[in-house]
Amino acid sequence: MSKNLSKNQLRRLPEYLTLLRNLKQNGIKYISCQTIADCLNLNKELVRKDIAAVSSYDGVPNKGRDIVLLIKDFEKILGYDSSHNAVLVGVGSLGKALLCYDGFSTYGLKIVGAFDRNPELIGRTINDIHIYDSRRMFGTLSTLNANIGIICVPSGFAQEVANDLVDSGIEAIWNFAPTKIEVKKDVILSNMDMATSLAVLSHQLYLKKNKRKEN
Amino acid sequence: MSKNLSKNQLRRLPEYLTLLRNLKQNGIKYISCQTIADCLNLNKELVRKDIAAVSSYDGVPNKGRDIVLLIKDFEKILGYDSSHNAVLVGVGSLGKALLCYDGFSTYGLKIVGAFDRNPELIGRTINDIHIYDSRRMFGTLSTLNANIGIICVPSGFAQEVANDLVDSGIEAIWNFAPTKIEVKKDVILSNMDMATSLAVLSHQLYLKKNKRKEN
DNA sequence: AATTAATCGGTAAAAAATTACTGAATTATG
DNA sequence: CATAATTCAGTAATTTTTTACCGATTAATT
After folding, report:
1. Which helix (H) or strand (E) holds B160?
2. A199, B14: Cβ pair inside 8 Å?
3. Domain boundaries, chain A
4. pLDDT tens digits, B30-66
5. Is the CB of B49 within 7 Å of strand D?
6. Is A84's Cβ below 8 Å from some Cβ in B?
7. What is the pLDDT of residues B123-182, one digit of tens each?
């Protein structure tokens, strides 16, 4: 079980995990790399490599791997086993949506508090999550025991909020604002980039349109 | 200007575009690949390749490229120039958030209608976007002139909704539901995958934690 | 007007990722 | 109990992506 996963590999892991969880739901006990590859339309050798990098034990010939153990390996590598506490900053439309979104627990994420600077929101509760004054982040954060900060403020404030989070001792930032932010390199940063996701789709529409013109 | 962009390239394009738009805001007129590389912490040769694949004209030595023209090239390749009309299906917490989100126009996307099957929502309007009965998708969709469908329903209904959208003649699907959906191959599909984004972050937290243990 | 400095595009080299292959091991089947 | 069918791990080959290099070109400077 190596720990040096490439970025591409890391992108595939959640797909495997989703599939495995589904299969387990359907009563499957053992799973082979070949089967996974077929399900996800991937090359079987690629899957073999990925699984080998994640799995803590060898597969069984003509049988595959115990799906329960494999899921555990994935969850461990992805850090989904030990639940992470997160705080969300910026209770606007997107922020509210995320507070109400109940799917995060699947990924071992729990939102334990929110911050905003709007007096009308401070003190209120959304989906049992308390909203604190973002100007008092430093003190509040330490009591919440959170190590992930979710940024949902408008682009113009994202960097400022990131700085505050870092100053308050956060370890990782998940940025939903459509802008680049910079943090010192021992802080982990992941961008939830709608632009990128949309770009893939939009570019293909562009190609399709041009193809039509040609004909 | 080639049109065969690799997936990695496609992922970088929105970053370039965001940067270029920012620079333009700040009054920059000309931009070189070197500068772009420096700003984004990328290899300059890589940037050169990417720009060459997108730009419709050559750069000027010792000067760079006209930033306005370059932005236009990006917007064209990404399909952001001709505005795409989209409909959103599933006006739950996330769906509402997206309806209220005003950043899509930056990407040439306009939500022209929404669908839900909840009678309390049907007929209402959110952010000037009308909510229609999702059971009457087929007829309604044709009047809205939309070619992108945004799926925001719970996982269990995502495939069903995708089928309805395809049957109603949609060209592309942007899936926000945390599940895999399948469509016939002439329909474009892009997943807005929070799991993937979170995985990157979560895995690094895992590595960090293990490192601490070692010491 | 000549020189300098910086950029470009194209090609070549290096690195990384993916795919293919091979032999050994194990379960299931006849 | 032997055979056949799968699967696995590890290595090798291929493809793709990224990085480096080089001569030509052009704007700015003197």
Report:
1. helix B155-167
2. yes
3. 7-76, 84-195
4. 999 999 998 888 899 999 999 999 998 888 888 899 9
5. yes
6. yes
7. 999 999 999 999 999 999 989 999 999 999 988 899 999 999 999 999 999 999 878 888
Residue of A198, A211, A212 for testing the chain B interface, max B β-carbons within 10 Å: A198
In this prediction, residue A105 carries a pLDDT of 83
Q: Does B77 touch chain A (CB under 8 A)?
A: yes
Contacts 24+ apart (CB under 8 A), A98-107: A98/A150, A98/A152, A98/A176, A98/B97, A99/A126, A99/A127, A99/A129, A100/A126, A100/A127, A100/B93, A101/B93, A101/B94, A102/A127, A103/B178, A103/B194, A106/A80, A106/B178, A107/A78, A107/A80, A107/B194, A107/B195, A107/B198, A107/B199, A107/B202
Angstrom distance, B61 CA to D30 C1': 20
pLDDT of residue B206: 86
Give me the mean pLDDT over the A41-66 stretch.
91
Please answer whether residues A174 and A151 qualify as being in contact, where contact means their C-beta atoms are separated by less than 8 angstroms.
Answer: yes
Q: Looking at the partner chain, which of A82, A93, A193 has a beta carbon nearest the beta carbon of B14? A: A193
Classified by CATH at the fold level, domain A84-195 comes out as Rossmann fold (3.40.50)
Q: How many residues does chain B have?
A: 215
Query: Which nucleotide shows the minimum CA-to-C1' distance to residue B52?
Result: C9
Nearest to A198, CA basis, from B21, B191, B88, B178: B191
CB B64 within 8 A of CB B35: yes
- Class of domain A7-76 (CATH, top level): mainly alpha
Q: Among candidates A95, A85, A86, A77, which has minimal Cα distance to A20? A: A77
Q: Which of residues 165-194 of B touch strand D (CB under 7 A)?
A: none
Q: Give B213's pLDDT tier (boundaries 50, 70, 90).
A: low
pTM exceeds 0.70: yes
Q: Which residues pair with B65 in a beta bridge?
A: B31
User: Which nucleotide across the nucleic acid strands is nearest to B32, CA versus C1'?
Assistant: C7
Out of B3, B93, B195, whose CB is closest to A107? B195
Give me the CA B5–C1' D29 separation in Å, rounded.
40
Q: Which residues of A touch B15 (CB under 8 A)?
A: 180, 196
The shortest C-alpha distance from A99 to chain B (Å) reads: 9
Q: What's the CA gap between A159 and B178, in Å, rounded?
A: 28
Q: CA torsion sign, A148 to A154 to A156 to A160?
A: negative
Query: Alpha-carbon distance B187 to B167, whole Å?
Result: 11
